[in-house]
Amino acid sequence: MQICFEYPTIDELGSAICKWMQANGCVPNKENEEELFSTKEAALFLKISLQSLSTYTKEGLLTSHHLKGRVYYKKSELLQSLKKAGPKFIRSI
């Protein structure tokens, strides 16, 4: 009796690994990829001081995210905060 195993090709194996990594959050999908700003970049983007950025975050006007001991802001959330707060937020800038 002889047993035969069928092995995947290198391309099939690579594709399967990539799919698994994306499904488990190891590699960002281009569809879900989000532009992140450091605190300095976020302040420059909003044209405010770092102190104002900190204040707005503490007041809940802006949402920050912590990753490996650093603070980041998602561009889409910064834009959403601007739209949500409207002229009140823009006047305070």
List keywords for this structure.
single chain; 93 residues; mainly alpha; Multidrug-efflux Transporter Regulator, Chain: A, Domain 2; three-stranded antiparallel β-sheet; 5 helices; rod-shaped
Summarize this structure briefly.
The chain contains five helices and three strands.
Can you walk through the features of this model?
This protein is mainly alpha-helical and about 90 residues long. It has a domain at about 35-90: Orthogonal Bundle (Multidrug-efflux Transporter Regulator, Chain: A, Domain 2), CATH 1.10.1660.10. Helix content is about 50%, strand content about 10%. It has 5 helices and 3 strands. It has helices spanning about 10-25, 40-45, 50-60, 75-85, 85-90, and strands at about 35-40, 65, 70-75. Strands 1-3-2 form a 3-stranded antiparallel beta sheet. It is rod-shaped, with a radius of gyration of 22 Å. The N and C termini lie far apart (about 80 Å).
